[in-house]
Amino acid sequence: MLTLPPEAALPHELTTATAGPPITVPRPAPIANRVLSDGFPATAEGALGWLTDFNETALRGGDPATYARAYGEAALPHAPSLQGSGPLALLTSFRNEAGIRPGELTPGLTVTYDVSQGLIKGTAEGGRFAVVCTLGQLSFDYQGQSTSMGIGDCQALRWTGSAWRIAPGARAAYAACAWPGSAESVAAGYRPLNRDGAR
């Protein structure tokens, strides 16, 4: 995966160039009492749709405890350790700097992750294994201060026969982080997403 300087993730000028045509991904409705949605098809686009839903759900609110719960629900036995997760490290760092403990409810804190681009790095085993990446805008609003950055996440996913899950084995290479729609995002291979269906 392309290595980009930290400033590539900060808001800056967009480009009209693309890395390819948009990728259409499904986006089914959530299931009651579950962090994650299922019902995504056994395709590379389905895997990317699943990771998009996973990241938007797990990062909403900016709580490492929520992300850890989602990861625990999503990871198959012998999947990469949660502790090596880039998104978890980012959320933990933000909370530490703000003096907010994991799991602590904080009035006035809003954190969202909106995925707008993605990348299908490859598939294997007849499409039952896929490495996919999301790129979106992670926004923190707290005590009148706002910060936004472009954050990528790549995961190796396994089709279980009924759902996509984080696969056992080696961790996928860490994603390039770029401001969505920027020249750097295009250089990293991210393509726009067409999101089909209701959330």
How is this structure best described in words?
The protein has 199 residues and is α+β, with helices and mostly antiparallel strands. It has one domain. A six-stranded mixed beta sheet has the order 1-6-2-3-4-5, with helices on one face. Helix 1 packs antiparallel against helix 2.
Features:
6 strands, alpha+beta, six-stranded mixed beta sheet
Secondary-structure-derived class: alpha+beta
Q: How would you write the strand order of the largest sheet?
A: 1-6-2-3-4-5
Order of helices and strands: EHHHEEEEHE
What oligomeric state do these chains adopt? single chain
General shape: globular
| Straight-line N-to-C gap | 30 Å
The whole-angstrom Rg is 16 Å
**Number of distinct helices:** 4
Number of domains: 1
Binned, the helix content reads 10-25%
Q: Can you tell me the residue ranges where pLDDT is under 50 for at least 5 consecutive residues?
A: none
Averaging pLDDT over every residue, what do you get? 90
Beta-strand content estimate: 25-35%
Number of strands: 6
Main beta sheet: strand number and arrangement?
6 strands, mixed
